[in-house]
Every structure is written in C-alpha cells, then in structure tokens.
Amino acid sequence: MKKENKINCDECKKQHACCLTGAWLDLEEAKKILELGIPKGDFFHLVKDDSYPSGYRTSTSVGNNPCVFLTRTGLCSVHKINYDLKPVHCKEFPYENGKLSPVAKYLCLAVKAKRKSGRKSVSPV
Ligand code: SF4
Ligand code: SF4
Fold first, then answer.
1. Which of 15, 39, 50, 69 has its CA 20 to 30 A from that of 77?
2. In a domain, 37, yes or no
3. Cα–chain-centroid distance for residue 83?
4. pLDDT value at 124 more than 60
C-alpha cells in the first residue's frame, strides 16, 4: 500500500467529525481521565470485554450524543490537558491495531472522501 494513501489527521478540515459518537476506551484509561476533573466528563456503558487490557471497556458518549469531552470549539478537552491520557483508540483512529478501523468508513471524513472519489484503498498503517 502506498504511503501517500495513509490518512493524515493533521490535514483534516473537521477534526472533530470522528468524535461525534464518542469512543470506547479501557476502564483503567477512563479512571485516569476522571482524575483530571473535567467538567461534565463522564463514562457510560461499562462492558466486559477481554480484548481490553483491564477486561472492561467503557464509552465517552451516551445515546446519539457526541463525546462528552468534545468542546464547543471542536477540540478534545483530554488532549488539551494531557495528550498522554487521550484514549488509545482516539490517538490511533482511523486506524485500529495497525489496520483501518471497520467504522472509519462511517466516521472518518478522509476515508469517506477517498471512497467517494473511487480510491477505496487507504494504507493500513
Ligand atoms: S476523547 Fe477526545 S478525541 Fe476521543 S472522541 Fe472524545 S473528544 Fe474525540
Ligand atoms: S480520523 Fe478522519 S475525521 Fe477524524 S481527524 Fe482524522 S481524518 Fe479527520
């Protein structure tokens, strides 16, 4: 796969587009974020999932609402305070474990644009 096909989020015109449905993260990641005391910052849907390091995952949004950490100006409040604590899925998206995420075609503007233009292939890493 050609390197130029890799999605570059720095070039994205609407970087919060992929935050509108929130993100899943490991329960232990969520606990550290809670310690930041971000107003309205909370987690939902605790689910047992052995593919996560702690064995549990939780979500940053409820219903059809955007991520609770998304600010009015379209920035991530966790990222603003401490990038290291930003959920792994958010740092990697639209990739996941080295491959394009299966939900990227719904959430990522760049992937959607490439598919629309007929260039369906984007680099897995
Ligand atoms: S935690 Fe931050 S990067 Fe992740 S979905 Fe929420 S606002 Fe977006
Ligand atoms: S994942 Fe897609 S929608 Fe989100 S910032 Fe990157 S290019 Fe933009």
1. 50
2. yes
3. 13
4. no
**Total domain count for the chain?**
1
DSSP letter, residue 19: G
Span 44-68, average pLDDT: 96
Position 58: which residue type? T
Distance from the alpha carbon of residue 36 to the mean position of ligand 2, in angstroms = 25
101 C-alpha to ligand 1 centroid (Å):
16
User: For residues 67 and 74, what is the distance between their CA atoms, to the nearest angstrom?
Assistant: 11
Residue 123 counted as domain residue:
no
d(CA 125, CA 123): 5
Per the structure, the complete domain to which residue 94 belongs is given by 3-116
What pTM did the predictor assign? Answer: 0.88
Is residue 22 lining ligand 2, measured as CB closer than 6 Å?
no
Angle (nearest 5°) at CA 100 between 109 and 92 = 80
Probe residue for ligand 2, chosen from 8, 92, 96, 109 as the CB with the greatest number of ligand atoms within 8 Å: 109
Strand segments (E) across 1-125? 24-26, 44-48, 56-59, 95-96, 99-100
